[in-house]
Amino acid sequence: MKEALEQEVQRRGLGNEILVIATGCNGFCEKGPILTVHPDGIFYQRLKVEDVPLLVEEHMIKGRPVRRLMYVPPAETTPVPKMADIEFFKHQRLVVLRNRGRIDPEKIDESIAYDGYEALGRALTRMTPEDILSEITASGLRGRGGAGFPTGKKWAAGRKETGTPKYIICNGDEGDPGAFMDRSVLEADPHAVLEGMIIGAKAIGASHGFLYIRNEYPLAIQRMELALRQARDYGLIGMDILGSGFDFEAEIVRGAGAFVSGEETALMASIEGLRAMPRQRPPYPAQKGLWGKPTVINNVETWANVPAIIRRGAGWFASLGTETSKGTKIFSLVGKINNTGLVEVPMGIRLREIVYAIGGGIPGGRDFKAVQIGGPSGGCIPKALLDLPIDYESLKEAGAMMGSGGLIVMDDATCMVDIALYFLRFTMEESCGKCSPCRIGTRQMAEILARIAAGEGTETDLDRLLELAATVRDGSLCGLGQTAPNPVLSTLRYFRDEYRAHIIDKSCPACVCKNLTTFFIEPDKCIGCLLCFKACPVRAIAGERRKVHVIDQAACIKCGACFNICPTKVQAVSKYTGEKGRTLAGPAAAPVQP
Amino acid sequence: MTKLTIHDLAKIRDRTKAMTILREGAGRAKVTVHMGTCGIAAGARAIMDELLADIEKRGLQDVVVTTSGCAGLCNQEPMVTVEIQGRPPVKYVRVTPEVMKTIVADHVVGGTIVSAHALAVGSETMY
What we know:
Structural class of chain A: alpha/beta
Oligomer: heterodimer
CATH topology of the largest domain in chain A: Rossmann fold
Number of strands of chain B: 5
Number of helices of chain A: 24
């Protein structure tokens, strides 16, 4: 081979340009003889003497590598796509999550390597508090915790106060079912949150910060503790930060485990060592907050946006998003969706893009029904509003709210009465009990919903629900009570037919509500495999091998085990509701009239 | 530790950046195991153990092992990113200890992407 190559090179008169060198075995014995052309580094394998003239002609003279002879790594025969081509990542715009998966959150130097604390340096040495305030105000940043209050305005209110000391708080008491945005930010990039707080402290004139992180987030707490220690070692918190003369201290407070602790006044009570109960506002925390002192409280994601705004400018930030909602929002995408995870998208993105492009659609070939956005305080957005732009105003108009960013996708097998009941039970259990409309009202509403779900509702129940919803909303001090009726109101608004089906037809169209659903084994489909017979926890199925199985409707607890275990190609177990369901179930399972 | 000045910040940035993007001397390859709560729940610790054991067994001196937070696609955890000097990073999904072993052998040592478990090459675009 070497001789053939040398001869060919000489014959072509390339002796001065091409050097033929013999090396030892490169380890790829089974692919030999092997030849590497430098400087391209192209690797040819299993060469034969006959290949040499072609190789010299094509590659060495014409500069065209001969693909046929090149080494193709065995596993790389299927090409791996680029990150920028993956739908899940393609539509995202990372501002807050820019360091996710990129830095080691336990090493402050890695944060600094990706511009961490650069904005702090600028804010402390080259900007006055007024400069910082006007930058944040101009950026249009609004609170990411749910209500969307303009951050600049809140800071200005804190700045204006003369009382000392002033405090700032980072609200990391994320408690919505299905939401984990704040946890992920705290775990992936704790220094971004801390940096935002120090910048805010300078703007407001605060000397002390608290990070209230729920105790159910041990890793977030651990990483933030480490971040605080490292920042302190570097003098990024403490006295005379970066030689600027500015002093700031920060500490972590572990959440006390109640959902209501995330409400700002309840959270402050909790830091003070009291039971987490909200109080009347005004006075707002900016005037009378922690221990009666001026306090500015922002959510994790809000603080984490601050360094990027200072570093890259308000104009840059405001270029993202819509007229009234600037920047990006992080959502935790969960439920009946193919790609579950954390997504950061520009404000104003259409719901359709989140669900179908980023989320990859609904699994199992089912149909999209609605999303619950904003958790138990939010509402559902139905299919008809898939093109709704996601911003504070549009969501509010649609009867939902931005909330902290939980986005639960529901498919057509979801019963909206059941969903409303689930969320209402959540707020009912988490109500602190201070305001009677919330404490008693949510319970009454839950009881009515349970009655409807059981097929025992009446038409007046719907009016009663609306009336109670108004009372709970208007008669509660804090956000928990004021928004608790939202899941009921929004499902009633978009899925009233489903409520009526439960009440009038005594049927649950999605076959979810147990009292209205009958499981039935189709005799013509059952192959008598005994799978459901064995799966039934209450032995309500009678059957023998190769004989049609039958459910004893009186004993059935509607757990769905038979439905789930029946092989997909058999699908002998059906769910029925309404008239048909009642007929199949016989008189024993018919719903009891109230 | 002495307190930092703005000048020190810039120095740390330049020095660490050179290391994290694998310039000369910092290592030939970097393997990042994504260890947010979601990753750990999906088994990232076992992946990390396997990775460290494998690297020790092979006596690899030029591989940097590090951790990071959730990469976003929680339902495909555990996730691992492998970066070979001079080439774009590769994200692996649904990694098991067995797959980790293959990734070390084929990709970290052999330079060949294990495409059966690779999600994508390259990085996410920052705004």
